[in-house]
Amino acid sequence: MAAPFTVLIMAAGHGTRMRSDTPKVLHRIAGKSLVGWVVDAAREAGADRVVAVVRAGDGVADGLPEGVECIEQREGEGTGAAVLAAREAVPGEGAVVVLSGDQPLVTAEQLDGLLAEHAERGAAATVLTTDRIDPAGYGRVVRDGDGHVETIFETKHSEGLTPEQLAVREVNLGTYAFDASLLFDALDRVELEDGESYLTRVLPVLRQNGGTIAAHITDDADAAIGVNDRAALMAAEEAAQRRLIEEHARAGVTFLHPGTTRVEADVTIGRDTTIGPGTVLEGSTTIGEGCEIGPHTTVRDGTVHDGAKLIHAFVLEAEVGRGATVGPFAYLRPGTTVGEGAKIGTFVEVKNSDIGAGAKVPHLSYIGDADVGENSNLGASTITANYDGQKKHRTKVGKSVKTSVHTSLVAPVTVGDRAYTGAGSAITKDVPDGALAIARERQKNIEGYADRKEDSQK
Ligand code: UD1
Ligand code: CA
Fold first, then answer.
1. Residue 1: is its pLDDT beyond 60?
2. Coil, strand, or helix at residue 186?
3. Where residue 13 falls among pLDDT bands split at 50, 70, 90?
4. Can you tell me which atom of ligand 1 is nearest the CA of 13?
5. Which of these is catalytic: 14, 312, 363, 393?
6. Which of 103, 228, 266, 394 is most buried, judging by how many CB atoms fall within 10 Å of its CB?
7. How far apart are CA 412 and CA 127, in angstroms?
8. What does 131-171 look like in DSSP terms, one character per residue?
9. What is the 38 CA–ligand 1 centroid distance (Å)?
10. In what order do the strands lie in the sheet with 354-355?
């Protein structure tokens, strides 16, 4: 176990290149804010405190995960000013890890490696670096003959930089471990450049003071994705998807077409489940074991139990029971529970309803605000009229009921256990257990109608 350490996340500022009303670090990849990813990595690495630097009124404080402390950067511009703002908030000694709120894919393993290197070298500062990406625009790392870091220079603006400087491939990932007892006094001595204080400029100062600057180099270039604009946001989303889908795959999930599948960060999926093309799993969705999800299925904040099958389905805040089937072309809306082994079929919409175990709603139905008992079968185009224009009412359908095609259940209404309805019935009154309810005009046949019509048109 590493010694306790504080993580400081630089998360202030709007990020104007995002061209957005939302502050940069609150943009999301795989459904989780950029800064949320960074917080999770810090906690997974064992940080005992996570402190975020924000600007007053930038809205970031409200978007942070629970338990993250917030301090405001009131003075100065730049990453150096961001860290200085935290002077009073971090302990005066031990290691402080400084992360960038816009580098979402830094991992706990990388932070472990950074801290181990930092301790091993007895360094004043240790920088996470990589040489596995196009270095354009990144801060570049200059090492001395012993492999220690001399300095980092910025390359956002390349004028005045020599070809040798621009040939440096090792870049700064904006992820650091510092000896807290040396950091802040050294930062006081950093000079402004273009009105900004660069955190990277603290490294030569620490070195002048006799400290060692170490670098921990990583091959995982995803951590290098710094989201400064929406093109980078896309790259981060893609990398996050690759990472998440690979994790699920290693845990026993089959993805038939990962390139068209999107799985958000908080989704859980059981083993031996197969995810088909065009499938989107979002929010707090939980999928059980041995399920078949997709093709072309979306589940948002839903729960799907073991062995269920969803084909061309859209499921929103609804629960699908063990072994149940949904779709193709079905829409489950909030508050719906589909019981074990039940079937929701083609062109069916269900809202705020309880569909009992083994019940079937196979074709062309709207079931809203209803409780449907076990093993009932709602014939094609059975519809609940749940709304009288002012209020919604519930429909209760008992166990083992069989409604015939085109039944309208006009709520509030109750259909008893084992009851039947006739085709085309508009059921407005309760139906007793075991009864057949027919509620439609009797058919009348008018003989010779066609002949008479033709005669009249002559
Ligand atoms: C920074 C590094 C660069 C590194 C790159 C990695 C500096 C000077 N440069 O550049 O060497 O290669 O990250 O992606 O540090 N922030 C504040 N307050 C501020 C300014 C920024 O909190 O006043 C936060 C931002 O919200 C952001 C992070 O600090 O999350 C990094 O700032 P940014 O301006 O994106 O730095 P880069 O130019 O990307
Ligand atoms: Ca950045």
1. no
2. helix
3. confident
4. 26
5. 363
6. 103
7. 67
8. SSS--TTS-EEEE-TTS-EEEEE--SS-TT--HHHHT---E
9. 14
10. 268-269, 286-287, 303-304, 319-320, 337-338, 354-355, 370-372, 395-397, 413-415
Helical pair 34-44 and 108-121, crossing angle rounded to 10 deg: 50
**What average pLDDT does this structure show over 290-305?**
98
Q: How far apart are CA 257 and CA 280, in angstroms?
A: 12
Ligand 1 pocket residue status of 73, Cβ below 6 Å: yes
Taken as a whole, the chain contains a residue count of 458
pLDDT band with cut points at 50, 70 and 90 for residue 15: confident
Q: Which atom of ligand 1 is nearest to the CA of 10?
A: 22
- What's the one-letter identity of residue 194? D
**Across residues 336-353, what is the average pLDDT?**
98
Nearest-atom index, ligand 1, CA of 156 = 38
Contact 79, 199 (CB under 8 A): yes
pTM: 0.94
The environment of the single-atom ion ligand 2, i.e. residues with CB closer than 5 A, is: 102, 226, 228
Answer whether 226 contacts ligand 1 (Cβ < 6 A). yes
Q: How far is ligand 2, taken at its centre, from the CA of residue 268, in Å?
A: 30
Q: Work out the average pLDDT over 63-86.
A: 96
What is the pLDDT confidence band of residue 156, given thresholds at 50, 70 and 90?
Answer: confident
Q: Is 80 in the pocket of ligand 1 (CB under 6 A)?
A: no
Is 363 designated active site?
A: yes
Compute the distance between CA of residue 374 and CA of residue 360 in angstroms, rounded to an integer: 9
In this structure, are residues 24 and 18 in contact, taking their beta carbons and an 8 Å threshold?
yes
pLDDT band at 2 (very low <50, low <70, confident <90, very high): low
In the predicted model, is pLDDT for residue 183 greater than 80?
yes
pLDDT tens, residue by residue, 204-260: 999 999 999 999 999 999 999 999 999 999 999 999 999 999 999 999 999 999 999
Q: How far apart are CA 65 and CA 9, in angstroms?
A: 13
Question: Mean pLDDT, the chain, as a whole number?
Answer: 96
Q: Is 198 in the pocket of ligand 1 (CB under 6 A)?
A: yes
| CA count, 13 A, side-chain hemisphere, 25 | 28
Query: Residue 157: what pLDDT?
Result: 85
Q: Among 79, 154, 225, 228, which is best to mutate for testing ligand 1, by the most ligand atoms less than 8 A from CB?
A: 79
CA dist list (Å): 95 to 25, 89, 103, 147, 427: 24, 14, 20, 22, 72
Instruction: Pull the structure tokens for residue 318.
Output: 């609804």
